[in-house]
Amino acid sequence: MTISVGEVIAVVGVEIEIRAFENSNVETHFFNGDKYNGISIREFVSIEHGFRQIICVIEGEYLDEKTADKSGPQPKYIRKLKAKPIGYFEDGEFRDGIKFLPKIGDKAHLLSESSVGSIFDGDTNSQFVIGKLLKEELDVSLPWQKVFNSHLGIFGNTGSGKSNTLTKLFTVLFENKIEKVAQRSKFVFLDFNGEYTGEQLTGEEHKSVIRLSTRTGEADKFMLTEDEFWDAETLGILFHATTNTQKPFLRRIVEGRKTYEAEADGLSDFAKAMFAKTLRSEHPNPEALELLKSLSTHLDLSAELKSAIHNVGYHRNNSAFYYHGNYFNVDDATYNAFFRELVDAIDFAEINGFRELQVRAELKLISDLLYGSVQYEHIQPLMRRIDAMMTDFSKVLGVANDDHVDNTVTVISLRECKQDIKKTIPILIAKHYYELHKTSVQSPPNKTMHIVIDEAHNILSQQSNREAESWKDYRLELFEEIIKEGRKFGIYITISSQRPADISPTIVSQLHNYFIHRLVNDRDLALLENTISTLDRISRGQIPNLPQGACVVTGTTFDVPMLLQIDKLPKHQEPDSSDVNLEELWH
Description:
Elements lengths: L3 E9 L2 E6 L7 E4 L2 E4 L6 E6 L2 E16 L7 E16 L2 E4 L10 E4 L2 H8 L8 E5 L5 E3 L2 H4 L4 E4 L6 H23 E7 L15 E7 L8 E4 H4 L2 H7 L7 H14 L4 H16 L6 H12 L5 H8 L1 E4 L4 E4 L2 E2 L5 H6 L1 H5 L8 H18 L5 H21 E4 L8 E8 L2 H22 L7 E6 L3 H4 L8 H17 L5 E7 L7 H5 L3 E4 L5 H10 L5 H6 L7 E6 L6 E5 L15 H4 L2
Parallel strand pairs: 12-22, 12-23, 13-20, 13-21, 14-20, 15-19, 21-22
Antiparallel strand pairs: 1-2, 1-9, 2-7, 3-4, 5-6, 5-9, 6-7, 7-8, 10-11, 10-25, 16-17, 17-18, 23-24, 24-25
Helix pairs in contact: 5-6, 6-12, 7-12, 8-9, 8-12, 12-13, 14-16
Protein name: Helicase HerA central domain-containing protein
InterPro entries: HerA-like (IPR008571), HerA_central (IPR002789), P-loop_NTPase (IPR027417)
Pfam family, one: DUF87
């Protein structure tokens, strides 16, 4: 027996109208030791339907005015409620979905707090509690096995508590499951603002922090294998290569390196051949000469060779090279007299990584120019990008023969990186882990990879005007592929952002579960309305007014949307994103 508060007076489609009894205005009821909340918006009622209880949520209420006596002056008001069914209890278990509808005359009853909790808490034995229901203040245990077996989206304006929610989710997981997790899963956090480099998430025995920095060459580096670095796709990502001309050029460099071995002797012989071919050509090429001069400036060549090559000129009228008044000619007299011995001494015994790439790129361009197989003006922008970005990339990336070994949790901090590096490196890192996991996993997957991207609008934005369309398309296509295809390989993405409208709608729509904090921008709210089918009208209307730390939790894992107040973490586990305390600072 429970507290009856009304009866059904109309059923139109899935809209139910309930006439409320007079006792329904009481805010709180107590019955047989249980607490019951009175009727209000977003409260739940149970409608008896045979041996089942149909659970409805109250979406609105109004007064219907009726005159008790035609001759009397006093009207009579009847309180009516609008409700929507969300599921039903059967054999003591809540099942979501509209399978049954009540009939006129069925009684509506209040639900006890414990019954309300069972609507949201499907696993009563789980310890995965990250917060309380906002209104009822009941602890809710989330079904962790379903939450982390999905792509997650955490959205909210700055200061709304989304970083705390992200940290709380994974902290509670690691506190309860770290020993099991460590055997089968890897977690990679792309940390743009350095918020998770301290004691957050888990202990140092299970966590590695890679602090990338373009300010100094002494910081950590993200290590790539030789095969991974010498890949046309990887190099195309790093240097924003265009699809039709620059990527094929990079591919020829990589193929040439594999064909003629990646040893220093092979590169030295290539350089000697290009120096000789350029200076002794029957049809001198001034662009090839300029590239040769550029190459000599940043290589460890002898001072004599550098000086000699920079004193070579091109005489346009005669279409010939000259050196100190001596023309290069077919009998090689000038070359043999001044250059042969210096060129034969070229040795690249200690070159690798980005420097080797620069050398091979310039030598390959010289070779293509001499054989007339390339248009110089199409490749030159790529060469300038390699020259400009090589120094910064060499500070944050390294090339090693051994595979990259990760801990269970790897935090990659980009806080001290330049803006263009912040856009490029995460794409390379995501591709690295995606390809590595995809090629090593069984079918069905026997292990999982979780990529967590905080401040995801930095790399998943469609609005950037600072990059070419082709590069932006590639960047988005990579992450769209991961989020579309990753699940079958056991790869899951969690994205956190304060501007979901800036993120590709394809990516947002492919997320399975959402934790939505306060958002006030109309574009953000419109995106959520158009992409999240499980977000009901009432929950959506509350998003702009949510208090700090509160969020709407919805998605495929949850039977009904719920308002959750996320618990704050202890001070030492909080992400480093707290607001400045001006009262203390300016005291």
